[in-house]
Amino acid sequence: MALKDSYTLPAAADMHVHLRNAPGAIASLVTPTIRSAGVDTVFVMPNLAPRPVVSVAEALEYKKALQQLDGQVNYLMSLYLHESVTPDVIREAKKAGIAGVKAYPRGATTNSQWGVVSFEPFHEVLQAMEEEGVVLNLHGEVPSSSADGVTVMNAEERFLPVLQGLVAKYPRLKIVLEHCTSADAVKAVTALGENVVATITAHHLSLLVDDWSANVHHYCKPSAKSPEDRRALLNAVVTSNGKFFLGTDSAPHDITSKKGKGNTAAGVFTQPHALGYVLTALEEAIARGDIADSSVTEDVLKGFFSEYGRQFYGVPLATKQIRLTRGGARVEESLKGEGVEVVPFRAGEETWGVEWL
Ligand code: DOR
Ligand code: ZN
């Protein structure tokens, strides 16, 4: 067996999660699974509907509601980049401890209808973020357009010049290319300075285009791509050195939004077993020969799961430890709450158990 049967590691930080509206049925269902997954810190995405989180007051209110669901998690809050976010809002956000501002290209994903068409009108806002050290979190896709030859398969690649343009214009701005999915994105981020990093999800280390084309629970944005792309992500994890860290993009949707009459909602729900999914993906990658078994060291896991993300955001390192044990848990068939049902990734499969030490 390629990996050990058990790992003792610092508590993890998941730097990209969707917890949905709080109070709310999905938030009540998924927020308690953060700590049971071995995670003590999460970066919370602001793409709520019918209204995204666009003010400091809304972000703080949202944080308070999440704390009512689990007061022991450190919630790093974010704002949704929108015309109501001004340089003054950025300065207020910095004082209030808001960790980042998420930019959604309009039309690229769930609840992006209030998102960015161009970064030009946000010049002063981006300058203020650069000055204050507020992170810009990028959903790195351009919207699909048959006129421009853009589909979900090349939407991320087409976004990379936008990323490079932002870096050239705001060289000190801290940027996270969220949930990168392609070899091109890994290469682009690797070539940029240390203020530019990327998150990698658990499911993109496992899935390919064939998987989501056959299963709505595997469909997300950006969508999973080719074997070469997946191999690049796996190699980015084991050679990260701080450039790539865990951001699961765990995105719970009620089963009716996944399987209803309309288009399926984008999002893979991975919160309850985030770390186990990564270990399984690494093990499968070793079996395929995508990575060497010697490359998965405890330092690699410690950095990717826990330390690199905290270091980037300036969050203190974890004080508690967790133990992950092979075969110690089974993924639920579904999680049911008040009038909602969410199907997790790899439902019904055996996975790694988590204990807090
Ligand atoms: O698959 C996704 N789901 N990608 C996103 O960018 C948003 C997320 C969601 O909010 O469901
Ligand atoms: Zn997301």
From TrEMBL:
GO cellular component: a single term: cytoplasm
Keyword match Metal-binding: yes
Cofactor(s) the protein requires to work: Zn(2+)
InterPro entries the record matches: Amidohydro-rel (IPR006680), DHOdimr (IPR004721), Dihydroorotase_CS (IPR002195), Metal_Hydrolase (IPR032466)
Parts forming coiled coils: none
Entry keyword annotation includes Zinc: yes
PROSITE patterns: DIHYDROOROTASE_2
A single GO BP: 'de novo' pyrimidine nucleobase biosynthetic process
Group of enzyme by EC: hydrolase
Functional pathway: Pyrimidine metabolism; UMP biosynthesis via de novo pathway; (S)-dihydroorotate from bicarbonate: step 3/3
EC numbers for this chain: 3.5.2.3
Domain Amidohydrolase-related: residue ranges: 85-185
GO molecular function, one term: metal ion binding
SUPFAM superfamilies: Metallo-dependent hydrolases
A UniProt-annotated Pfam family: Amidohydro_2
CDD domains: DHOase
Keywords: Hydrolase, Metal-binding, Pyrimidine biosynthesis, Zinc
Family: Belongs to the metallo-dependent hydrolases superfamily. DHOase family. Class II DHOase subfamily.
PANTHER family: DIHYDROOROTASE (PTHR43137:SF1)
HAMAP family: PyrC_classII
Protein name: dihydroorotase
Organism field: Chaetomidium leptoderma
